[in-house]
Structure formats: structure tokens, C-alpha cells
Design a protein that fits this description.
Blueprint lengths: L9 H10 L3 E4 L8 H12 L3 E4 L9 E6 L13 H6 L8 H9 L10 E2 L8 E4 L27 E5 L6 E4 L3 E5 L2 E4 L6 H12 L3 E7 L3 H7 L9 H9 L4 E4 L6 E3 L4 E15 L15 E13 L4 E5 L10 H4 L1 H15 L4 E5 L8 E6 L1 H6 L4 H12 L10 E6 L7 H11 L6 E4 L9 H4 L10 E5 L23 H10 L6
Parallel strand pairs: 1-2, 3-15, 4-11, 17-18, 18-20
Antiparallel strand pairs: 2-3, 5-14, 6-7, 6-10, 8-9, 9-14, 10-13, 11-12, 13-14, 16-17, 19-20
Helix pairs in contact: 4-9, 6-7
Bound molecules: prFMN cofactor and crotonic acid adduct, potassium ion and manganese (II) ion (MN).
């Protein structure tokens, strides 16, 4: 086959990272028990190159190499979002705003359904029956407190609604349970859980496929909270302007990206469950008393690409250097939240979940001139935004919204926290929501003082009252805003002369 672009082929993506000098080929033997994950976690935190473990202890028959931090920030401080840009065919200089604009660029466009091809790289090797032994694969232990080896953290979970033409692609964690079974989180209101419920009602086990090392743009869309009923692969087609190539699974009627590295297929039981976790999760905690009991994945086949298949992994944790649960989940939820607010006619320029808030907060940037035309006030405006976001799935993971002006860059946490700290009066400027669905993984909900599944959400108004109807009554005291252009130009021109 001709080599496709990096956003359509994981191996081409890996080569692109290598040519970007943003990949470390590690040929020394590394243990998948904690060592691979510890290196990956430190790679996020130092924003170093993405580690490609070419010699994983226990790997055999081409299963498998491991790529860590595929969605981490790039190692070049000049191009921090280059690794994300590579996922969607954007230039290395792209900003997070460009990335969000791109992910929303197919909204309103005709979906482009995938095409089915006879075979592809993921069909080069096939394992069935007794040849399947998940406990013999070098599935990584990602955190010392984890309850199992999480083989699935960056693959696409593919499931189909039993009666409607809806095939959902998402990412949901799963760990090895035994020789032929996985167990993984199936959490409401996620679409995988909604569709699973339909199979429960139909009385039949749910066919599944997990496509690991799938085309990077498909991984992005799988991590995006698109509306219910949208078939993610069709949105990928609309984004690319061309259909994605899928091949049929061996043991069920689902289709997977032909260029996937590894495909695990089978049925998700509607009766058998097992203890799952603990798991080092996206907020930086692994609670030792986690009592998660989840459905069992019965694996019926594993197919994989030749040339030493690569397993991508995510090692969630503190966003000191963000990992994929921040750069993908947070940024893509931001995109859908912006879309929702703009579709409802709100004067929103952008939305972003600052990594410093572990993507639990989202800053909503308001066009203040347009705000004036609404002739509204903080209470009405903030309650309207909270009612929209906190009652929709795309807002499920957000517990604090910061409503900020267009003088604030939502992607610059120093801007965001300055406006929150100085313009949001505690109490009067905060609008609480206790009757909305909570995000159960947030520590002050799962292990907090109050209710666990509802409430704990707030909209913080970070606009002074007069900003709702007139120009700001202040000059911002920083170099950018506090001085006339000719002074700033003179200062910049003489800066080196002053030896500063
Ligand atoms: C990018 C990413 C997204 C994740 C997860 C991860 C990564 C890397 C890992 C596996 C590392 C950690 C956990 C964290 C955990 C949240 C969860 C999960 O286990 N269960 C879940 O329900 N949602 C998860 N998401 C978010 C999910 O993919 C998005 O919400 C997506 O929009 C869902 O698609 P639908 O809208 O179509 O429903 N995992
Ligand atoms: K999705
Ligand atoms: Mn979906």
C-alpha cells in the first residue's frame, strides 16, 4: 500500500514523531511491569520525547512494542502542541485553538460513511481459541496501586446499537482478567454504557472490538463527546473529506480501521461481571478502596499488524505535564461545549479546560461587545450557561465554569486565574448547581463530604457588573496594555542595549 499520512496510519504517525525528533527509540529491554509506565509518566511530566519501547520484556510473536505518551505535549517548547497537530494533519505551529477549530470543522458537514475493504495491515496475523492467552502478553502495569494490567487505555472501543444504525467509537479502559477475558469500565452516561443497556434489554451479549494503534484522527474523534446517535467513523470521514477504510472483524459483524496495529474482538457479557481497578485515573488519584465491578469482555480473536505491532498506552495522572486524559478528554470536551453554546446563540469565542485544573474547570471566553446586546446580567447569563452545559453529556466532566471576558486568553491559565481571583466575588458571583449529574471520578464527589452522583457544580462569574453593558472601566496594568504603542516599540528596540 502507498504510505498514508500520519493522521490516517499509526505507524506513519510514529515515523512522523521520529522525523520530528519527538520520539525516543528505546531498544534496551524494559519491563512492562511498572517500568514502562514510570518512564512514560516521567516523559509527560518533563514534556520529553514520546518513548517507543521496541524491546518489551515478555514480548513474543510480534506482540508487542509499546508507545507511551502519543498524546502528550511535544518535547519542543516552541511547538508544544505538535504531537496533537500530527493526529489531525495540522502544521506543527498549530495552537490549541487551531486544534479545537479543526475538530469542530466537520460540524454541519455531510457525514462521510467509511468504506469496507477486504483486508488490511491489521489482518496480517490472527489468533483464535487456544492461541489466545492475554496473560502471556506483556500488558503493562501502569501504577503500583492498579488492580490489573491495563492493556486497553488508548484503543478505540467499537460497539453497535442493537437496532439503530449507530456504531459508537470511544475510549474506555480495560484490564486483563485472565487467559481470554478483560474487564473494563462501562460508565453512564457514556455512549458505550447507553448502547450496552440496549443489549441488556435485548437479552444478548454485546459484540465489541477494541482497535489499538488505530488511525490517530480516529482516536481523537473517539475521545470527543459527539452527540448521541452520531457514528464517529462518519465524522472522521467528514473531517478528512474522504471515507475511512474499515475491515470486518473475524468473529462478529463489526468493522475496524484496516490500519490498526492490534484488534481485540469478542462479546461484552450482559451477565458476567468482575472486580475492576483500582486504576490510576485522570485526576491524579488511585483510590485504594475503589469498588468497581464491571462487565467482562470475552475475547474471541486477536488480529495484528506484522513488523512488531505497537500497543499505544496512556498513563493517566497529575497534569503537571498533561497526559491524554487531559489533552484529549479536556480539549475535545471543550470543543463540544463551545459548539453547544454557540449553537444556542451565546456570545462565546472559545472554551478550554486548563490542565492546571486537571480539566475539572472550563474557562468560557465571552465576546463582551456581543454580550451588551443581550441586555442581561450575571445571574441570568451564568444560570443560562450552567443549565446548558451541566445538563448535557459534553459538560459531564466539568465541575466549575469560569465566565471570562475576551481580554482573557482561555488557553493561558495566568490570564484565567487572574480574572477569577480578582473579578469573581466569593458567594455573590458564584451560581451553584446541586440538581445536575456529577462526574463520579472527581475525588470530592467519589470520596467527598456530600452526595456522590449529583451536584457539586458551579458557574463563577469573572466579569464585573459593568462589563455586561459597557467598556471596561480600567486599564490593565501589564506591559501589553499599560503603555502607548510608541513607548512599547522604543522599549523593545532598546531592550538588548539596556542589557536586560
Ligand atoms: C482519551 C481517553 C478517554 C477516556 C479514557 C482514557 C483516555 C486515554 C483512559 C483509558 C486512559 C482513562 C479512562 C478515563 C475514563 C474517563 C475513560 C474510561 O475508562 N471510561 C469512559 O467512559 N471514558 C473514558 N475516557 C473518555 C471518553 O473516551 C470520552 O468521554 C468520549 O467522549 C466517550 O465517547 P462517547 O461520547 O461516544 O461516549 N478512559
Ligand atoms: K466518542
Ligand atoms: Mn458517541
Amino acid at each position: 500500500y502507498s504510505t498514508p499520512p500520519p493522521h490516517l496510519d499509526f505507524r506513519a504517525f510514529v515515523s512522523a514523531l521520529r522525523s520530528d525528533n519527538d520520539l525516543a527509540d528505546i531498544d534496551a529491554e524494559v519491563d512492562p511491569r511498572l517500568e514502562v509506565a514510570a518512564i512514560t509518566r516521567r516523559a509527560y511530566e518533563l514534556q520529553s520525547k514520546a518513548p517507543l519501547f521496541n524491546n518489551v520484556k515478555g514480548a513474543h510473536d510480534g506482540l508487542f512494542r509499546i508507545l507511551g505518551a502519543s498524546g502528550g505535549l511535544s518535547s519542543d517548547p516552541q511547538y508544544p502542541y505538535r504531537r496533537l497537530a500530527r493526529h489531525v494533519g495540522l502544521p506543527p505551529t498549530s495552537s490549541l485553538g487551531d486544534f479545537i477549530d479543526t475538530m469542530l470543522s466537520a460540524k454541519g458537514k455531510e457525514p462521510i460513511p467509511p468504506v469496507h475493504v477486504g483486508t488490511g495491515p491489521c489482518k496480517e496475523h490472527k489468533l483464535f481459541g487456544d492461541n489466545i492467552d492475554l496473560t502471556k502478553l506483556p500488558a503493562p502495569l501502569l501504577n503500583k496501586a492498579d488492580g490489573g494490567n491495563y492493556i486497553q487505555t488508548m484503543g478505540i472501543n467499537i460497539v453497535q446499537h442493537p437496532t439503530k444504525p449507530w456504531v459508537n467509537w470511544s475510549i474506555a479502559r480495560a484490564m486483563v482478567l485472565d487467559k481470554t477475558r478483560l474487564v473494563g469500565l462501562i460508565m453512564k452516561p457514556q455512549h458505550i454504557a447507553r448502547i450496552y443497556e440496549q443489549w441488556e434489554e435485548s437479552g444478548k451479549d454485546m459484540p465489541f472490538a477494541i482497535a489499538l494503534g488505530a488511525p490517530p484522527i480516529a482516536v481523537m474523534v473517539s475521545s470527543m463527546p459527539l452527540p448521541e446517535g452520531v457514528t464517529e467513523s462518519e465524522y472522521v470521514g467528514a473531517l478528512c473529506g474522504e471515507p475511512l477504510e474499515l475491515v470486518k472483524c473475524e468473529t462478529n459483524d463489526l468493522y475496524v480501521p484496516a490500519r490498526s496495529e492490534i484488534v481485540i474482538e469478542g462479546t461484552l457479557s450482559i451477565t458476567e461481571r468482575a472486580k475492576e481497578g483500582p486504576f490510576g485515573e485522570m485526576h491524579g488519584y488511585s483510590f485504594l478502596d475503589e469498588e468497581s465491578v464491571q462487565p467482562i469482555y470475552n475475547v474471541k480473536a486477536i488480529t495484528y499488524r506484522g513488523g512488531n505491532a505497537i500497543l499505544p498506552i496512556s498513563v493517566p495522572g497529575r497534569a503537571t505535564g498533561p497526559d491524554e486524559t487531559h489533552t484529549l478528554i479536556g480539549t475535545l470536551a471543550s470543543a463540544e461545549i463551545r459548539q453547544l453554546l454557540q449553537e444556542n446563540g451565546l456570545p462565546v469565542l472559545n472554551v478550554f479546560t486548563p490542565y492546571e485544573t486537571q480539566v475539572i474547570w472550563a474557562a468560557v471566553q465571552i465576546d463582551r461587545k456581543k454580550l451588551w446586546t443581550l441586555k442581561t446580567n450575571a445571574e441570568d447569563f451564568c444560570r443560562r450557561i450552567g443549565d446548558l452545559i451541566f445538563r448535557r453529556k459534553c459538560g459531564m466532566q466539568i465541575h466549575r465554569l469560569l465566565i471570562v471576558g475576551d481580554d482573557i486568553d482561555p488557553f493561558n491559565f495566568k490570564d484565567v486565574i487572574w480574572s477569577y481571583a480578582s473579578r469573581c466575588r466569593p458567594g455573590m458571583d458564584e451560581y451553584h448547581f446541586e440538581d445536575v449529574a456529577a462526574y463520579g471520578l472527581v475525588p470530592y464527589m467519589s470520596h467527598g463530604p456530600g452526595t456522590k452522583v449529583t451536584g457539586g457544580k458551579v458557574v463563577a462569574n469573572c466579569l464585573l457588573p459593568h462589563e455586561y453593558n459597557q467598556e471596561q472601566l480600567w486599564v490593565t496594568c501589564d506591559f501589553e496594555n499599560g503603555y502607548p504603542e510608541e513607548i512599547k516599540e522604543k522599549v523593545l528596540r532598546r531592550w538588548t542595549e539596556f542589557g536586560l
